Amino acid sequence: MNKNFLFAEYIRYLFKAKGRHGTHSAFVYELYEKVISEGHEFYDFDELEDVRKRMLHSDATLEVIDFGAGDKRKKDRKVKDIARVTSVSPKAGRMLFRLVNYMQPKVMVEMGTSLGISALYQAKACPDATFITMEGSPQTTALATRNFELMKASNIKIVTGDFSSTLPDVLKSLPSVDYVFFDGNHRKEATLEYFKSFITRASDNCVFVLDDIRWSRGMLEAWNEIIREPRATVTIDIFSIGLVFFRKGQAKEHFTLRF
Q: Which domains are present in the chain?
């Protein structure tokens, strides 16, 4: 991550970003009120943050496989370092929870499980939904699974392996999806490939969530291409996260909103 690039992008974002009163869409206004705004708290949040605290205090070491590096590079990393660097932030986790709670999807997919904190925030918001999360590293999968069991998140199914091997079978098993969270490979080409793979399965009420859209110039380029996708009717930029909605009958619009 280039910090100078990120800082410059944040300044640009601040100049563009609007609040709830800067929208002229009833759907986006309500979404801002109920999802993006931090005004709505849920009793699950404290329990979910307890999982993060345990991970942040763990000196255990995991072998992590970086499939995104192109050579399946392996590296030993402490759990607390993984939790600090790769886990969804508390603010973003709460927003994801509110989004799922608001949309009530029946079938959800997450690309990039890590320690399972983001999966828990999303799956606990709609416990009757099917939630499939995908992770490349077996040892990371094992720890995430223990976190799911501890939190009694029985609706989560975890798929382990390189996305290029596991994604085709996941797609075959799903006639349609209502929610996809992309957080597993921060390269432009991979992000666009996964987006195009899932768009063929998107239901009329589907939302795609893309994390780290300003991780790099390549990720920002991918996000800008996604904004132009004709089937994406409403796109929302909240700086680090991009939201994409496929609402039939909705005029195509893009919003940059404060978060």
A: 3-42+88-256 (3.40.50.150)
